[in-house]
Amino acid sequence: MTAIRVLPDLLINQIAAGEVVERPAAALKELLENSLDAGARDISVQLASGGTKLLKVSDDGHGIGKSDLLLALARHATSKIATLEDLERIASLGFRGEALASIAAVANLTLTSRMRDSKHAWSITAEGSMVSDPKPAAHDPGTSVEVHDLYFNTPARRKFLKSEATEYAHCDEVFKRIALARPDVAFRLQHNGRAQWHLKAQEPDQRISTLLGDEFSAAALAVDAHSTGLRLTGLVGLPAAARGVRDAQYCFVNGRFVRDKVLAHALRQAYQDVLHHDRHPAFVLFVDLDPARVDVNVHPAKSEVRFRDSQALHQFVFHAVTRALAGPVTAERTGVPAQEFAHAQTPGDNRTAVDVRSAAVGAPNQYGVGFRTAQKPAFYDLLFARTGATQDSFSQPSGEVPPLGFALAQLSGIYILAQNAQGLVIVDMHAAHERIVYEKLKTQLDTDRIAMQPLLIPVVFNAERIDVATAEDHAETLAEIGFEIAALSPTALAVRGVPVALKDADAAELARDVLAEIREFGAGGVKSGVLTERQNELLSTMACHAAVRANRALSVPEMNALLREMEATERSGQCNHGRPTWHQISVAELDKLFMRGR
Ligand SMILES: Nc1ncnc2c1ncn2[C@@H]1O[C@H](COP(=O)(O)OP(=O)(O)OP(=O)(O)O)[C@@H](O)[C@H]1O
Ligand SMILES: [Mg+2]
User: Fold this and answer.
1) How many other CB atoms are found less than 10 A from the CB of residue 57?
2) Which ligand places an atom closest to the C-alpha of 99?
3) What is the pLDDT of residues 118-144, one digit of tens each?
4) pTM flag (> 0.85)
5) How far is the CA of 100 from the centre of ligand 2 (A)?
6) 97: closest CA among 34, 18, 175, 19?
7) Which of 56, 78, 145 to mutate to test the pocket of ligand 1 (most atoms within 8 A of CB)?
């Protein structure tokens, strides 16, 4: 066995560099964070060859004094914390005191800095373990760190570098994350001498649009929620705009981009109900909380955090995002000024802590209202019993046009055409109705059990033995979700009652599907048992049975009833599978089609 020995400093730093600066983008992140910690308002980045040849970050921050320059490159030397208490409530991005030392160990690094009251700057250069003495230099107040030939002295690491384009792409991503977190700071990025980004200090919404594109902002809802000592702001993408790939997903905690399981889970849950499982929503969310409530000293790259009370945070984020997504039809999406609808909010609707606004570009700061209509017509009676109500009974007080407008006609037995203040509204009637029934069932089950409609004449059908056994084993679960299904023989079942909302569905078919699902997922009570997780899937299956089928002719009052019910239903903008239930075509778009007004 060889003797144990203490490693030389350079090797220690090179080992640390493996974790801290695993690729050029990681070095860029550290340099940008240092600039922000120094209070910079204007930061510019120059890269060459994806950051491997040159990586230079210049800022106008508070600078480093001549006597501190060497310390800045020393390991475990930092100006950001001094005690354990500081470590437990970190307000800066850096605190480990090792980023510059690590970078200097695997590259040639020049650090030039000038404090505001100095006549000129001082500069030092590190090459391997050699660091030069400070020399006078020309530089505006602030700091520049210039990194040449990353990994020149660690060939093994260099081999892991990907193509220039790939390394640049990672740098670009890091740049975007930092720029998203600090819209109040101006940033510039150049690659191989060409300008890539030039961002002035902006409003948060504008910064998001600039970096992620207007399409992102146009298809997103804003979140702004707070609870004691906690704040969540940002944009969540509309489910209908979700894509097959996981791209624009940004979470920041106290200004730091993080990958966090608690936040990711809360978001997944919030979207679960409105998004098909293989789609990924886009979002940019900022969590701000007391630094004492979050531990950032978890990982060398500082990209993970631990929350002291993750349960509470999970609930908070889940509810805030769920509420944002639940806005049925926002006033702005239909272009009607929000205040006109203020009176239409359900009294006692406890939404004051959460603002839901559409983030349509051009009106970034205008708050819309996720409103509910004042009266809810007895939709099912109207839709199925055909009471012969007239359109007038759906008119809003004071003659306003409701957000989804008034029905004009039915198209192809599938779509409802309606007119609102903006122009034409097209509704997929099956998808919309399915969502309405589904939300009703969920609400009923949340409050108690689903109301049952006893059938005057039970529906008897031949059943598989396994279905009969399931019906007998899970009578209580079935009752909770509004069914009474009795075994007549080992191969025959009688449906004696179905959920009120589903009374027009084919009872035998519905019963078969529900029994199959209960069997597959296990039961033990919908609310208490294994089925809890699958409850929504079960309700969604049920809703599909009840929803108006294609080719069913609807009268104008029936169509209007459906539109009003959509306005009153949470999440009615998407069907249970995340597809949109309606589309707006403005008069301007129609004019364009016909080349009018040119
Ligand atoms: N751009 C800058 N402007 C002013 N001071 C700087 C700048 N970059 C680095 N420093 C100073 O150099 C010190 C060392 O920086 P370094 O990045 O190595 O460590 P850190 O930021 O304290 O912690 P971490 O390793 O977590 O980044 C900092 O604490 C800071 O005082
Ligand atoms: Mg740092």
Assistant:
1) 23
2) 1
3) 999 999 999 877 899 999 999 999 999
4) no
5) 7
6) 34
7) 78
